[in-house]
Structures are given as C-alpha cells and as structure tokens.
C-alpha cells in the first residue's frame, strides 16, 4: 500500500463514530430532526463551533454570532461554552427528544419545545439567561438544519 492510502485510512479511522456535519440530517422526517437537534446540542456542550455552526442555516449562525457579540459563529460557540457551568454543559450534552414530541408545521419545518427535551442533571436550558423555549429546524438544502432557537408562547393542549 502506498503511504497516501495509509494516510487516508488513518484519517478515516480517526473520525469514526462521528458522521460528517454534511451527512447529518439527511434522514427523512422525525429521525433526521432528532439526529440534528441532538448533534447540535452536543456540539454546543463540547464547544465544537465548526460542528455546531455547520448544523445551522447561515442566518441562524449569524444571529447566534450577533447575539453573543462574537466575531464568528465558531467564536460564539466557544464563548457560549466558556460561559456554561459544568452542570449546564452536562444538560446540553445529554439532551434527547422523543420522536413523538417533535412538532411538525409542515413537511419541511419542525419545532422542538424545550419543555419536551429530556436530559440528565436538570431542566434543559439552551442559552442560559436568554428566554429561548423552542428550536425550529428546517429541511433546507436536502437536510435538516437548525433554523433558529426562539421564544414563543407554546400552544395549550
């Protein structure tokens, strides 16, 4: 085997277990929504700006950057990570959503109410100190992406 092939194989093995950002969210329906939401909250918890921002549409990345007063989206994620306590990071890292709790507005728009998110270590809070209670995802460019975290009044059942 040539050294180039060994290098490529080594690089592929080094990233095993973590799908590339562009591969996430390509699963149709609720599975794709859940996959992206959980990968995004995990990336926020880890301070992985490239991964978190890669799961967001451009305007969402820009809005997060502006809201946190950062120079770029990855820098905003790094700042957010630095402002979180160990407990808050654990809550984000363990965030899960049951597929029946995903609220579809249409075939290409879904909402995840933060009150439906389950996590270990306490109640789920996406951005401490900010009143965000829902994350909206869209099917954009053939994959589910975070469109925006927002504050909405949850409809009564």
The residue ranges in which pLDDT falls below 50 over 5 or more consecutive positions are 1-17
Helix run count: 6
Reading side by side through the largest sheet, how are the strands ordered?
Answer: 1-2-3-4
Q: Helix amount, in percent?
A: 40-55%
Kindly report how far apart the N and C termini lie.
62 Å
Q: Largest beta sheet, briefly?
A: 4 strands, antiparallel
Integer-rounded radius of gyration: 16 Å
Q: What would the principal axes of the Cα set say about the shape?
A: globular
Question: Structural class, from helix and strand content?
Answer: alpha+beta
> What is the H-and-E element order?
HHHHHHEEEE
Taking all residues together, what is the mean pLDDT?
81
Count of DSSP E strands?
4
Strand content: 15-25%
Q: How is this fold's topology laid out?
A:
Layout: H1 3-14, H2 29-46, H3 49-54, H4 58-67, H5 73-83, H6 86-93, E1 103-106, E2 109-113, E3 134-140, E4 143-150
Antiparallel strand pairs: 1-2, 2-3, 3-4
Helix pairs in contact: 2-6, 4-5
